[in-house]
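Q: Could you fold this chain for me?
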Amino acid sequence: MSWLAIALLVVGLYLAFKLAGVALKLVMWALVLLAAYWLLAPLLGMPRPF
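A: Sure. Below is the predicted structure, expressed as structure tokens.
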């Protein structure tokens, strides 16, 4: 394997882990917002989502 291929592999793995981290953060924020809406909707007179 050439040095260029090893460098590209390392950069690709780094970017894949960064992308997975961002995706997990987005999913967690979506869950937080859904939970907040679930709890606050009855107090604000809004319908529950389910």
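A (continued): Residues 7 and 18 are 17 Å apart (CA to CA).
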